[in-house]
Amino acid sequence: MSFFIGRIESLSSRFLTERSHELIVAPAIADLQHDANSGNLVSAARARASVLAAFGGALYDELTADASLLKIAALILIPACYYTFLIYLCQPQAALYVAANFGRLVLPAAIALLSIPPVLVCCWPERTRRRTLQPDALRRCSGQTADA
Amino acid sequence: MSEIRLPSISSTESLLLDLLEHRERFGLELVDASGGKVKRGSVYVTLARMEAKGFVESRQEDRQPGAIGLPRRLYRATAYGLKVRDAYRILRDALALKPVEAQ
After folding, report:
1. For the complex shown, is ipTM > 0.85?
2. Looking at chain A, which residue has its C-alpha nearest residue B48?
């Protein structure tokens, strides 16, 4: 649990502003911890999914609220066009083979995977801050007490 | 002449304001009370947008000593939010009338 929360925290500190974290991601994490304490595995799994959904929603809000982030969409187009031309124009037979044997969406998905994450990691504006989850809270969340 | 920018309110936001009208609630309480109309993954995104518009206010819950995990957040409707909701409700009702009925 604490590993999952730690990952979300680090992603949040890289990609989200303080406000988005405080108002969107942190309450979802608090709900996740609340469900974990109740011991219901199904609701804990749903809470994890909702934390991811909240993170995605916050990311979308950041994208739409900050006009400068629109340049990221343009930057994504550059590698996407490169891979598209490389695959569909230079190797059309291979593209047809992959589409026929593995599905039509495999190559577009591969192109998206090759294009989007590197641009997001490299070009997303730095978020200055901040908070990290209190080590004590993480320890308690994983079921240990401060005394232990 | 400067243009007046009217606030917008969605049906989900209107529903959340209904639920928050009389008392403070947690996000999960709102999800449960909405009867499935508000999803758990989107409730905080919607509430954050509403807070940015001034429709709701929020605060962290009061923690008891030894409480586990991060504090949850309590939400309540603002007078402005309720005013916008009521205004849109009147507008919607008025526009729903046929011209003959409106006379």
Report:
1. no
2. A23
